[in-house]
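Q: What does the predicted 3D structure of Arginase look like?
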Amino acid sequence: MSSEHAKAVSIIGAPLDLGQTRRGVDMGPSAIRYAGLEERLAEIGYAVTERGNVAAPEPEALTVRDARARYLPEILDACAALAALVEGAVREGARPLVLGGDHAIALGTLAGLAAAAGQPGGVIWIDAHGDLNTPETSPSGNVHGMPLAAALGRAPEWFRHDGLALPAVTPSRVALVGIRSLDPAERAYLRDADIRVFTMSDIDRIGIERAVREALDHVAGPGFVHASLDLDSLDPEVAPGVGTPVRGGLTYREAHLACELIAESELLGSLEVVEANPILDRENTTALTAVELVASALGKTIL
C-alpha cells in the first residue's frame, strides 16, 4: 500500500449473526465502536471514514431452508453487500477495517479484496477454530464454521453468488494461528492441504513471535494480505464476550505481540475483527481489548 494511502482506514460494520445460534454478535460492531475505535485510530494518525453497517436480517424473520447450512442464502446476500463496500474502500485507497458480527462475514471481506485485486490473496486467520467445514461436513450447519472453506473455493455449488468473487484465497497462502478446536473433517483436510497451522500447542513450544513470523512469510505474495481476527482466539479470561469460547487461548500480551508483528511486517492491507458478543461480556472488556488489538495491528507502538 502506498504511503499516501497508508493512513486511510474505512470502518465497515457487518452485524450479521445468522452464522451461528447464539444471539448477541450482531451488537459487536456497535460495542467496538463505543469502546473508542475511531478515536484510538485518530490518535495514531489515521484518517478514518465511517461507512456504517451492512444490512443484515434478523433470524426470527427467516426460515431455515437447509439445516446443513443454516440461513446460507441470506448470509451470501449480506456477504455480497459487504464485498462491494470492501472493494470500494480498496479502490479509493483506504484500508478496510471490518467489524463483525460472526465469522461468516469473512467470506464477504475476502471476496471484496479479491475483486479489488483482480486475483486471490493470502490470509492470516487468528482463531480458536479452523472454519474449514463445508455444509456436508459441518456437525452444526452453522455457517460461521465455513467461511474459510468457502473463500478457498471448496463446495462451490453451495457458495456461488453473483456478488462474490470466489475463490478469494490461494490455498498455499493461508496460515492459521491459535487453533485449539478442530472438527474431524477439518483435521483430515488440513493433513493434506498446503496451509500452515500453528496450534496453541505449537505456540507453547515455539513462542508466538516465531509462529506469527512464519505465518506472515507463508501468506505474503501478490493480490492482498488480510488478517482475520476472531476474538475467541484469546483466552476467555482475556476476552469473555465471545460466542464460542475455548479455554487455553492467547494471552493478552501474546495477542498484542501477534498484532504488533503483523504491523511491523508492512504486509497488511486489510483487517477484520469478529465474534464480539456484548451480551456475554463483562463491562465491554472484549470490545475494549478489540480496539487495542486493532491499534496494535495498525501500527501503535509503545515508544
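A (community wiki): The C-alpha cells above were generated from the sequence. Residues 37 and 110 are 22 Å apart (CA to CA). The first helix runs from residue 28 to 34.
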